[in-house]
Task: structure prediction
Amino acid sequence: MNRRQLLQGTGVALTLPIFESVAAVPSTGGESPRRLVCVGNHLGFYPGNFFPKASGKNYLPSPTLMPLEKHRDDLTVFSHLDHELNGGHNAVQGFLNGIKKEDAAGFPEKNISLDQAAAEHVGSATRFPSINTGIHKGTDMCWTRSGVHVQPINNPATLFRGLFVNVSRRDRESIRARLKHRGSVLDALRDSANALHQSLNAADRDKLDQYLTSVRDVERRLQMSKKWIDRPKPKVPIDEVVDEERQHIDEVALLYDLKALALQTDSTRVTTLETGLGFRTAELDLGSYHGLSHHGKSADRIGQLKVVEAFLATKLSDFISRLKEAQIFDNTLIVFGSGMSDGSIHSNRNLPVLLAGGGLKHQGHVICPAEQHKRVPLSNLWLSVLHWFGSEADRFGRSTGTFSPMEIG
Result:
């Protein structure tokens, strides 16, 4: 019996009903593993185009959600959720953790993001604990337990090679030697740090403990890498992506396709996609997306935003269809949204948030309390997502509990 089953058995209802129907996460055996996909857009989604007017399953789809209409029964949209952060562009990086990097030192697990917490739970079960991808420079939304930013891969050719192209024996030996050298350096640093520990005051010991946590995090990743050096990569039914194609393809669709293949081949179970500030695509005659986000309530600019945001929703819809065809959608939970709400006023409140898949009993449009004293932290939803994934974490970010039905009733 896992922790959640025990709590439910003692009469403590911790999670929203959509999570109650999900069976225990399989740790062994032939059942399909849980997978988590997080998608974030730096410039948010114009609220008037994103949120439906009515609650429940019978809402009229908004312009942004219209491309997802065929998946209506497989998603839930949430209103009035956020982390109570301010800072405009600088607070967008708190989307998956609720903590700005400058405040991370005040939290026991720093500003670790939802995807990286899930990746820790996966460990070395897959070749890549997580795969972080982005368009342009991404949104800075992925952070490790030691407060280190995880840079996104923004080149589909690089991602393809990493996932599906086997390296030569000579290159494998080079990788092995490099990992061994890094391991010896970490051993020396750790030994020196331990020797210093007793001679430091309380404040400096705390800093040293944070440093040792970072060292242990790197060591864990090195051990995972060693395990997979000599294992062949999976074969996939598509041609290799090459750099020369980048000017002639839709990179959003291609990155989604590669992520679907990575999940389907169990190369990873956690992956992210970040749409950065300078997002462009060959499929749209797009000038400055950033400029459009500062619409100033201009009907023309809001209309152009509608086209861009519908494009992003369409690519998500195609991705969902791909996962359904691969028969892994019911075991894959997708988080879609942004750490920015209305880019025109740099608002980080009432964030656009959507969950899809995961075998959940989806509720259409869930309107959470708007009153300040009743507001539900977005981190509560992230904690419930982690529990769905199999983690037994007691808290996450600024959470006050899991996403309880009493908080939205």
The chain has two domains: 3-160+244-407, 167-231.
